[in-house]
Structure formats: C-alpha cells, structure tokens
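Notes for week 9. Today we move from apo structures to complexes. The key idea is that a small molecule is not decoration. When we ask for a structure prediction with 2-acetamido-2-deoxy-beta-D-glucopyranose present, the ligand SMILES becomes part of the input, just like the chain. The input block below holds both the sequence and the ligand string. Read it once before you look at the output, and try to guess where the molecule might sit.
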Amino acid sequence: MRLVRVHLFLLYVAGAALLGHQCCEAKVMMEYIGATGQPVTFNPVPIEDNIDFHFILSFAIDADPSAKPQNGKSSPYWIETLTPESVAAIKKRHPNVKALASLSGWSLGDKVLGWYNPKNPKLWINNAFTSLKSLAKEYHLDGIDIDYENFPRNNASFAYCMGELITLLKNQSVISMATIAPFHTTVLPYIELFNKYGDVIDYVNHQFYTDKVRSPTGYLAAFQLRATQFDKDKLLPSYEVNGRGIQGDAFFDALNLLEANGFDVNGVMIFSADASSSNNYYYERKSQAFLTNSTRV
Ligand SMILES: *[C@@H]1O[C@H](CO)[C@@H](O)[C@H](O)[C@H]1NC(C)=O
Ligand SMILES: *[C@@H]1O[C@H](CO)[C@@H](O)[C@H](O)[C@H]1NC(C)=O
Ligand SMILES: *[C@@H]1O[C@H](CO)[C@@H](O)[C@H](O)[C@H]1NC(C)=O
C-alpha cells in the first residue's frame, strides 16, 4: 500500500513536470505604479492571497534628471511616495507580493527616452548591473521589467545588453524574476531579445492596448499574433485604465474568449495603479476574480 502510494506520487510529480513549469504555479497580476506623478501608495490596491501580485515600479532610468544617458547607471524616477520602507511593508503584509523595477519607459519630464547603442556594451552591462543591484537592495526588489519604447534604426546591441543583464542579475541572485513589455511598433527588438534569451524571461507584458483593438474578437486576433511571436504561456493580456484599446467589461469578455479558444490566461497586466485609484481599482478586483475563477490544469 505504501509503495503504491509512493509510485502514484512519483507519477504525479512526473506528470506535473511534463505539463510544463507553469502548470501548478499561481496566476499573476502585473501592476505598473508610480509613473504619473500622483502621490500613489501600495496600501489601497486590492491584493488577493492566491495570486502572485507584482508591483512594477515605474521607472528606473539610465539618465540624469535632464534625461542625459548615464551609460547604464539606472536611478529611480518613480514617485517618491513609493519608499523602500513601503515596499518592505507591503511585502511583509502580503507574502505573495513581489516588486519589480521597470527600465526606461517613454519619457522623463518632457524628454523622450530611447535605447542607444552603447560604445562599450560590456561596460554598459556592468554599470546597469551594479546600479540595479544597489537599487534592488535598497527597494527590496525581486525583479526587473524591460520597457524601452524607442529604438534607433540599428538596435543590434539591445537584445545582447538586456539579455546579458537579466542573465547576470539572475545568476548573481540579485533578482528572481524578469519581464518584458513590448508594444505594437517596438515588437521586433523584443522578439530578438526573447528568441535569444527567452529562458531567463518569465512573462511578456505585451501592451495590447497599443494594438488598437477595441472588441473581444479583435483582442483574440491580436493575442493569437503575439502568441506566435512570443511564448503563449508567458504572454499576459493587458489593460490600460482610462486609456487606449479595449475598454470596460469588454476586456473580461476578451479574456473569456481567449480561454474559449484554448489559451490559458495565466495572468493580467494593468497600466496603472495611478489611474485605478479613481475607480476604486475596479479592473484589479475583477481581473483577480477572473484569475481565481478560471482553473489552471
Ligand atoms: C531593430 O532591429 C530589428 C532586427 O534587426 C529590425 O528589423 C528593426 O527594423 C530595428 N528597428 C526597430 C525600430 O525596431
Ligand atoms: C551562474 O553561472 C555560473 C557560471 O556559468 C554557473 O556555474 C552557476 O550555476 C550559475 N548560477 C546560477 C544561480 O544560475
Ligand atoms: C466565475 O465563474 C462563475 C461560474 O462559471 C461565473 O458565473 C462568474 O461570472 C465568474 N466570475 C468572473 C469574475 O469571471
């Protein structure tokens, strides 16, 4: 009897392994926070216990306050109400919370930011590593998100620099988690990054709201396309609060349509907590209810 049980258990473990690494993990919420200049805090954001909840601090930028690039050295530019102490406190209160720093974003003040090909990529990677390591320690970070949004014509070093940076940060146990945030017109350099370094990238926060689809069927078509460009199980549907793309409860119709078409909705990305404070976090609540409801194999 005991032997049979052991065998059944081994069979279960083998089966679970075969179903892929995400088979039995919790579903994820990705919540950008701190980019708009509003004095937001973590406290009012609803967090369900059985969801892996990721706050993505927006943004850590390789630039001085006048937006001049610093050869890889990142500084925090998210709103100062998101203090290191408040990150520690929300993680203590909710052990399922992780904190990530998103790299770059669209702009700093009125200056548009973009990838530039560093003269010495190894030095850039080293500077980025050192600055993010100290930022991770100070702010109790678990990971980074890559959100460069403008690229020069020749962007060859982007995939190399980002891929090696993530690999090094993970190898040195500075971070345990890395995500990328392509959008409609920036998908190419991200595909290159994902093709070469997909093993160290946990989720793809594709900005579906930039694909300009407003209906559930349009959303499904966009998801089907992005699923061929990235890994469908790492790809998360996303929603921009008071923003572009699909709006209102049609988003949840789209999630249901994804599942009806055989996709596992493994999580949801929302931009952003700053905007959601005006509607009592309606989309965060309903997304987590959806994720809790929809069963994972
Ligand atoms: C970036 O690199 C890719 C691959 O070499 C290229 O196809 C693309 O046009 C480049 N520029 C942008 C803005 O994506
Ligand atoms: C880090 O890289 C070294 C050298 O490639 C490797 O031996 C080691 O297992 C890696 N450690 C982690 C935690 O990935
Ligand atoms: C949860 O599942 C029930 C039963 O299938 C369904 O009626 C309800 O609308 C679902 N809730 C959400 C938020 O998806």
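The two ends are 28 Å apart (CA to CA).
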